[in-house]
Design goal:
Structural class: alpha/beta
Distance between the termini: 41 Å
CATH architecture of the largest domain: 3-Layer(aba) Sandwich
CATH superfamily of the largest domain: NAD(P)-binding Rossmann-like Domain
Order of helices and strands: EHEEHEHHEHEEHEEEHEEHEEHH
Strand order of the largest sheet: 3-2-1-4-5-6-11
Radius of gyration: 19 Å
Number of domains: 2
Strand content: 15-25%
Helix content: 25-40%
Largest sheet: 7 strands, parallel
CATH class of the largest domain: Alpha Beta
Low-confidence stretches: none
Mean pLDDT: 93
């Protein structure tokens, strides 16, 4: 029996990797709903693509019905922390309202399971303990975290009122191929690109104090695949991250060592919406999903650098 899955934002950095993995599973039919076409490479064979906006509830409802969707992965998100903070109203209009439209459509057509890619880096705020467990208070300090947490709360309401099962994943900082190195998010890819182009890298604040548990995109996708069949509900919230914390200075050093290129670092004033030290406790995902990150940062940097050389620099993006 074919399993029909919809991935919102399925042409983006995370979504495209997820779509590739899902499409490789026997008996799985994948439909991508995205406002943009895929930028890097073609969609997998036999993958459906609906180009549309989640604000168009008729369009999303039609996609759910026409392709007999049973499971939805919601990876679409219009902003990064910096842009969300600059225009809070736009962040609400482009993320919260469209997601509520999507939830309404799912309930109307009888979708039973909804997997949401939230943010481990955004929803907790300033941690009172490290590593941060899922039970940690959620007090986000930026608009990006507030809107991600808002959707988590809506999911709880929709499950209670309408029986829409949900699973929430809170990733730390994924990186890897297809991550746009020109955006002001994704320091690993940005550092690699700038190093290859002999340009300086920018660090906001002290590079020793900004600490994250970076992890490779394939490891994140593996967790996304693992959650398809697990029980949903109030306990189905999972932190995902790397097994080792790294400072930004560590990442600069690793990129230098892997590429053999000296990097010039420019330091700018810290940003108030950045949490300085953020490392997630991933033991819940390890125990329930039997998941753990496998790719070393050194290996991930090398693989990302090879992709950037072939697909960004060589192609002139």
């Amino acid at each position: 029996m074919t399993r029909n899955i919809l991935v919102t934002g399925g042409n983006g950095f995370i979504g495209s990797h997820l779509v590739d993995r899902l499409a490789s599973q026997p008996g799985t039919s994948v439909t991508v709903f995205d406002i943009y076409p895929r930028l890097y490479g073609p969609l997998p064979a036999h993958t459906n693509f609906i180009q549309g906006n989640l604000n168009d509830i008729g369009s999303i409802r039609k996609a759910l019905v026409d392709f007999n969707i049973k499971l939805v992965y919601h990876t679409a998100w219009a902003n990064i922390p910096e842009s969300a903070q600059k225009n809070v109203i736009a962040d609400l209009e482009t993320n919260v309202i469209p997601t509520v439209h999507l939830l309404d459509a799912c309930c109307e057509v009888g979708i039973k399971r909804f997997i949401f890619l939230s943010s481990g880096g955004g929803v907790y705020g300033i941690p009172n303990k490290i590593p941060i467990p899922e039970s940690h208070p959620t007090n986000p300090i930026n608009a990006y975290g507030v809107t991600k947490l808002t959707i988590e709360k809506y999911l709880g309401m929709y499950e209670h009122l309408y029986g829409l099962e949900n699973i929430i994943l809170r990733p730390s900082v994924p990186y890897g191929p297809r991550q746009n190195p020109h955006r002001r998010q994704g320091v690993v890819s940005a550092f690699i690109y700038n190093a290859l182009m002999k340009r300086p890298v920018i660090i906001w604040g002290n590079g020793k104090d900004i600490i994250r548990d970076f992890f490779y995109i394939d490891d994140l996708v593996e967790a996304l695949i693992q959650v398809q069949e697990i029980p949903a509900g109030s306990e189905a919230v999972y932190n995902l991250g790397g097994s080792t914390p790294y400072s930004l200075d560590d990442i600069v050093r690793i990129v230098q060592d892997v590429l053999g290129i000296a990097i010039e670092v420019r330091q700018e004033s810290p940003r108030a919406f950045d949490v300085p030290h953020l490392v997630l406790d991933i033991s819940h995902a390890m125990n329930v999903l039997r998941w753990s990150p496998k790719t070393s940062v050194e290996n991930g940097v090398a693989r990302t650098a090879n992709w950037i050389k072939e697909n960004i620099i060589k192609e002139g993006y």
